[in-house]
Every structure is written in C-alpha cells, then in structure tokens.
Amino acid sequence: MEEKLDISYQCVLTAKKVNHILGCIPSNVASRAREGMLPLYSALVRPPQESCVQLWSPQHKKDMELLEQGQRRITKMIRGLEQLSCEKRLGELGLFSLEKRKLRDDLLAAFQYLKGAYRKDGENLFIRACCNRTRTNGFKLRECRFRLDVGKKFFTMRVVKHWHRLPGEVVEAPSLETFKVRLDGSLSKLV
C-alpha cells in the first residue's frame, strides 16, 4: 500500500498472478467445455481476485478493469462463447462481473452487521438514519461526510450508497438466504 492509501500496486500483483494462472490453462487442459472451465475459474482465478477484497477494494476504474481482464480472458476460452461479448458470456454462464460480485459481498456483509451477526466486531459500524421520506426502502443508513476522497472509498460509504437504492423487500428480508436471493434479483439494476 502506498502513502496515499492507494492499492493500485496490489491490483497489479493480483492481475499478474491471475494472468500467470491463465497462461498455464491452455497448455494443460485438453477440454474447453463449460463443465471443465467453470470449476477451474472458481478454484484458480476467483480466489486471488476476491481475497480480502473488503480490505483492499479497488478504488479506481483502471484497477477494476485490470482485475476484470482475468475473468474476460477465461470466459473467452470456453468453447462456443468465443464470439460473444463479455456481458453475454457472463450472462450465459450465470456469472456476475467482478464489480457486481464485490458489491454483492459488501451488501451481504452489511446485512449481517445490521442483523447483529458481528455484534462484537462492529456495533456502531452503521447508524440508522431517522428519515420518514423514502423512495425505495424504509431502512436508511446515515452517511458520513469526508473531506478527502479516500474516505469515500471506505466499506461503510460504498455500502450506504447502494443500500439506499435497494427495494424494501430486499432490505427487510427475514434471513440471509432470503436476502441473497432477493439481492441477486435486483443487483442488475444497481451497477
């Protein structure tokens, strides 16, 4: 991490590791079928990309693009999907982009905090806002104000912005499993 709390170097190292893994796949894997490539993606490519992502979340668009190259590259290796665009390949495979997965994980962690799953670790991590005027959901969170841009990239700020845009039936889900299902249905509208 740099003095300015910029994690671009971490993103470059992660992209290098993913590209090294992806370089080994064509010479060592005979079948390019979906059934063989998706487990390789889940086991080899996703873990370096998502390791501690809440801590070192990519802050800049260029960093996110650098990390997304690995996902684009492996989905292009799958037989029958080579000519499709990246969004269509991901839709065909039932996958989210790295940005949507990161947002989904952030929102899942926030839901767990708000439901009291991590009471000892962060009791006052999120503060509920008292506001009667709501358009989307009745469970609003208070936004903190920061003078520096780096404060706007904190976990709590990333979550609050998108939490307010979720429909009421999502944020008022009775359990984590219900929240996951409802969130996946509305995630395409958020990013």
Features:
191 residues, mainly alpha, 2 domains, 8 helices
Report what the structure shows.
This protein has 191 residues and is an all-alpha fold. The chain has 2 domains: 8-95, no CATH class; 102-190, no CATH class. Helices cover 57% and strands 0% of the residues. It is built from 8 helices and no strands. It has helices at 8-28, 34-50, 61-77, 86-93, 98-114, 155-163, 168-171, 176-190. Helix 2 (34-50) runs antiparallel to helix 3 (61-77). The longest helix has 21 residues, at 8-28. The mean pLDDT is 78.
The total count of helices amounts to 8
SSE run: HHHHHHHH
Share in helix: 55-70%
Structural class: mainly alpha
Uncertain ranges: none
Overall tally of structural domains: 2
Short description:
This protein is mostly helical and 191 residues long. The protein has helices at residues 8-28, 34-50, 61-77, 86-93, 98-114, 155-163, 168-171, 176-190.
